[in-house]
Give the backbone structure.
Amino acid sequence: MTASRGQGESPYDPLTIPIGVLGKPHGIHGEIILRPFNPQGATLQDVPAFILERQGQGQGQGQGQGGQEVRPVRAIRPCADGYLVTFQGVETREQAAALTRSRVRVERQHLPPLDDAEYYVEDVVGCRVVTADDTPLGTVKETFWSGAHDVMVVAGAEEHLIPLIPRFVISVDAAGRTVKVAWDV
């Protein structure tokens, strides 16, 4: 399942998942555009708070370690570029502008449950990749959208570009950090 995608994101986190980045402010009352990594991904209407990752920012409301802060969502609505979000405590355009370029994560518990054969694309980054007979191929360095589907960049003795489609992906064990593929070495 392609519910989220982002290259160079934070390492795998079993509790949260990156879903997008905040863009420019909208209007004068503190709304800001959230551009999701996958616009067709899970709906965010019922997510009570976003976790913002902000590089080089000072302490703010809910600021945690590593430049993360939890921001409760006051309102969220769809728009052409993704979503318009209003955070509690953000009342002006200037306050919203200060959040621009923040990467947004959500707690997985607020997203719909995945079926057994589904996974989030972000979860494969950092996984080791093995063939059907357990021959190691390398580690997923990143993913990218090819225009037709997501593709893993697997770094090992050689670099492999492996499409994230059922024809090539046998299984994804996100918790065990392993992807098994139908791939000839």
